């Protein structure tokens, strides 16, 4: 094994872990062992010392097995062991002021507050052979506390007041803690997994709270050492749960039968016919109707993941932007019509595009399902394989659409005019006259000049790529899933004719850290061409943004 030097030693070990072919999500579990440990550098050296094989390879079999055993030890659900001692219950309820220590929520008939233990009252039963591994992960101080003091905590130190659902969510790794000065602490929530507990949806991602002053209450607060240990194991526990959910799925074939296809055809034809008649209504009336529906939709469905998009009643969505970006909505309107006309890709139906002096509005139908980002962590191997095939088929259909606009220009948006693209915007100095629109470009050399980075004069894309129709923003929010299958692709405002590598490098540009998604992207585009050189050029340029 080659010698590593700090400070890059941890990163190099992380890369070695990622080079090992492991079943999902075993690689993620080992990454959390490294990155969430109390001293990652020490953990990196431990992994090298324990798992070194020939060359730069790692034999992770026994480490992974022991790590999974350790995770299972700390998967403890306090909601199943509520205190029955009325004296303790009364004392803890008063100390915690009748509020859930995790969520800050009060008592609910359907989700009552409970006084539950942080750790098993008899302590954790940890095999001696796992002590070294545990010490590496949580540190010697917490290890000594756990082995020597945890079992002797007073009832007040080992109990707190939480909602029943919150206690169960804690056992599933949905909560983490950071402790500040004095009595303050911060609670963070996780969104890993397909079906989030209802209580997670009721609380913010980050919430600051405060324990009661024990001098005033005369009752000890929950022991923060216990909470530190539970917090450090949160990510591994959550990912173990995601793996369990994926493993429990049964292989299934999801197909659109004749009835489904007929219903989709008729409903879309009906919506199109109604939209054509509706567009005869004066623009001001339509805009007022959309504003009213948006207000109603916000109260019925809440906000969406985008500030500009609102779900409406009747299976509709409304995208609203300033008229400054009207051209991007016009491009999306045209793109949806083009894709529906030439392909079988499931995309929203564009129903209306209207503007006033201030805002522009795009009305579309919905695509069933949830964003891929909501379910990617629990997709089975079979579902991932199917998704790869579905995306490849979509991209092949998209690339086959002929360019019939602006023949004098090679690279344009769907309308044959200037392109709107976040990669171009971020990589360029703002020009008020140009705004956020670039091109159209006569040829690829013209386009490559726009991609140049001044500090890197020798880092330039090559020319000669095939120019194809691209989505331009393939990410975890825009790919929709239903019952484990691709159900559609949304958000087409950046669609246009670009070099054939563009969708691939843009997918890496938008999402740089989600390893499973990037592996899916690499597999999808492997059938369409080798774009490693183009990604290498783009990656060098991105570092200067």
Short description:
It is built from 22 helices and 15 strands.
CATH superfamily grouping of the largest domain: Aminoglycoside phosphotransferase (APH), C-terminal lobe
Q: Into which percentage range does the β-strand content fall?
A: 5-15%
Count of the domains: 4
How much is the average pLDDT? 89
The CATH topology of the largest domain: Aminoglycoside 3'-phosphotransferase, Chain: A, domain 2
Tell me the name of the CATH class of the largest domain. Answer: Alpha Beta
**Radius of gyration from the alpha-carbon trace, in angstroms:** 27 Å
Q: What is the helix content?
A: 40-55%
Give the terminus-to-terminus CA distance.
Answer: 36 Å
The structural class is alpha+beta
The CATH architecture assignment of the largest domain turns out to be: Alpha-Beta Complex
Instruction: Describe the strand arrangement of the main beta sheet, using strand numbers.
Output: 6-7-9-8
InterPro entries: AGP_Transferase, Aminoglycoside_PTrfase, Kinase-like_dom_sf
Pfam families: APH
Domain Aminoglycoside phosphotransferase: 318-508
Organism: Claviceps purpurea (strain 20.1) (Ergot fungus)
Overview of this protein structure:
The chain has helices at residues 9-19, 26-35, 40-51, 61-73, 86-95, 131-138, 140-148, 164-171, 198-201, 214-217, 224-232, 234-247, 258-278, 283-301, 326-342, 372-375, 381-399, 422-426, 444-451, 502-510, 515-526, 532-542, and strands at residues 113-117, 159-163, 175-179, 184-189, 206-210, 309-312, 316-322, 350-355, 359-365, 370-371, 412-413, 467-470, 479-482, 485-489, 496-499. The longest helix is centred in the middle third of the chain and has 21 residues, at 258-278. Residues 1-5 and 254-259 have low confidence and may be disordered. The two termini are 36 Å apart. The strands form five sheets. A four-stranded antiparallel beta sheet has the order 6-7-9-8. Strands 3-4-5 form a three-stranded antiparallel beta sheet. The protein has a three-stranded antiparallel beta sheet with strand order 10-13-14. 43% of the residues lie in helices and 13% in strands. It folds into four domains: 9-70, no CATH class; 75-234, no CATH class; 265-365, 2-Layer Sandwich (Phosphorylase Kinase, domain 1); 370-542, Aminoglycoside 3'-phosphotransferase, Chain: A, domain 2 (Alpha-Beta Complex), CATH 3.90.1200.10. It contains 22 helices and 15 strands. With 545 residues, it is of the alpha+beta class. It is globular and about 80 Å long.
């Amino acid at each position: 094994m080659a010698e590593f030097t700090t400070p890059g030693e941890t990163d190099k070990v992380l890369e070695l872990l990622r080079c090992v072919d492991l079943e999902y999500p075993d690689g993620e579990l080992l990454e959390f062992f490294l990155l969430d440990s109390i001293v990652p550098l020490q953990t990196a050296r431990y992994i090298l010392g324990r798992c070194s094989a020939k060359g730069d390879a790692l034999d992770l079999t026994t480490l992974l097995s022991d790590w999974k055993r350790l995770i299972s030890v700390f998967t403890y659900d306090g909601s199943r062991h509520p205190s029955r001692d009325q004296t303790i219950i009364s004392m803890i309820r008063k100390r915690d002021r009748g509020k859930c220590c995790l969520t800050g929520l009060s008592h609910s008939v359907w989700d009552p507050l409970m006084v539950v233990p942080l750790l098993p009252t008899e302590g954790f039963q940890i095999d001696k052979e796992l002590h070294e591994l545990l010490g590496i992960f949580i540190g010697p101080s917490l290890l000594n506390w756990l082995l020597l003091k945890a079992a002797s905590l007073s009832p007040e130190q080992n109990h707190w007041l939480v909602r029943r659902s919150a206690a169960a969510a804690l056992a599933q790794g949905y909560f983490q803690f950071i402790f500040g000065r004095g009595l303050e602490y911060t609670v963070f929530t996780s969104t890993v997994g397909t079906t989030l507990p209802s209580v997670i949806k009721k609380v913010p991602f980050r919430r600051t709270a405060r324990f009661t002053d024990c001098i005033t209450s005369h009752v000890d607060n929950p022991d923060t050492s216990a909470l530190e240990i539970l917090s450090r194991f949160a990510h591994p526990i959550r990912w173990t749960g995601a793996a369990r959910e994926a493993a429990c799925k049964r292989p299934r074939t999801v197909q659109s039968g004749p009835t489904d296809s007929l219903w989709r055809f008729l409903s879309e034809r009906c919506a199109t016919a109604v939209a054509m008649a509706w567009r005869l209504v004066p623009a001001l009336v339509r805009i007022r109707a959309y504003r009213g529906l948006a207000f109603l939709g916000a109260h019925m469905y809440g906000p969406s993941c985008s500030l500009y998009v609102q779900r409406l009643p009747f299976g509709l969505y409304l995208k609203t932007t300033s008229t400054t970006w009207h051209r991007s909505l016009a491009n999306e309107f045209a793109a949806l019509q083009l894709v529906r006309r030439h392909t079988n890709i499931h995309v929203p139906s564009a129903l209306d595009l209207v503007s006033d002096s201030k805002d522009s509005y795009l009305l579309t139908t919905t695509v069933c399902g949830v964003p891929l980002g909501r379910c990617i962590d629990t997709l089975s191997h079979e579902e991932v394989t199917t998704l790869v095939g579905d995306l490849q088929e979509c991209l092949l259909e998209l690339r086959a659409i002929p360019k019939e606009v602006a023949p004098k220009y090679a690279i344009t948006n769907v309308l044959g005019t200037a392109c709107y693209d976040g990669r171009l915007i971020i990589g360029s100095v703002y020009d008020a006259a140009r705004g956020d629109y670039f091109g159209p470009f006569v040829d690829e050399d013209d386009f490559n000049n726009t991609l140049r980075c001044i500090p890197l004069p020798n880092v330039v894309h090559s020319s000669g790529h095939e120019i194809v129709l691209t989505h331009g923003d393939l990410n975890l929010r825009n790919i929709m899933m239903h019952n484990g299958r691709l159900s559609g692709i949304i958000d087409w405002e950046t669609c246009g004719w670009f070099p054939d590598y563009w969708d691939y490098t843009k997918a890496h540009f938008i999402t740089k850290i989600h390893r499973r998604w990037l592996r899916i992207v690499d597999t999808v585009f492997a059938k369409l061409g080798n774009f490693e050189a183009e990604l290498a050029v783009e990656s060098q340029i991105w570092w200067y943004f």
